[in-house]
Amino acid sequence: MKKVLIVEDDPHLRRLFRVLFEQAGLEVFEAEDGVLGIEAALREKPDCIVSDSMMPRMSGIDMLLKLRGQSPQPVPAIFVTAAAEAPDESTQKEAGIVEVVAKPFDFDRLTALVKRCAEAH
Q: What angle do CA 87, 95, 3 make, to 5 degrees?
């Protein structure tokens, strides 16, 4: 079973993501900020990371960039953001972001993206 790590500080959104992704047949792990996201990613070795952009203690971009330096095999990520601006293309590539999804988003589209991301890894 493919593994997905959700890194999101909003507990309601984390729970919603968990339900959607589990219904899609994925094994789901959660972290509430970037610091805990790094720990969970190193421990669980997910096939895809779904990360919020702005979180307490460490942003999604900072977390993904740090993970790239600590993980022997880069994990593809889907970046979920409410911000008007997405990270620039070179930062996205460096962080392993395969898709930026703006809030509010289409849940079916997001679930399909996550499933494809995990299966491609």
A: 120
The residues facing 82 across adjacent strands are none
Looking at residue 84, its pLDDT comes to 61
Q: Residue 14 belongs to a domain with what CATH number?
A: 3.40.50.2300
Domain that holds residue 35: 3-120
Convert the pLDDT of each residue in 9-43 to its tens digit. Answer: 999 999 999 999 999 999 999 999 999 999 999 99
* Total count of domains within the chain: 1
Catalogue the long-range contacts made by 113-116 (C-beta closer than 8 Å, 24 or more residues apart): 113/78, 114/4, 114/21, 114/24, 114/26, 114/48, 114/50, 114/78, 115/2, 115/21, 115/24, 115/25, 115/26
**Residue positions counted in the chain:** 121
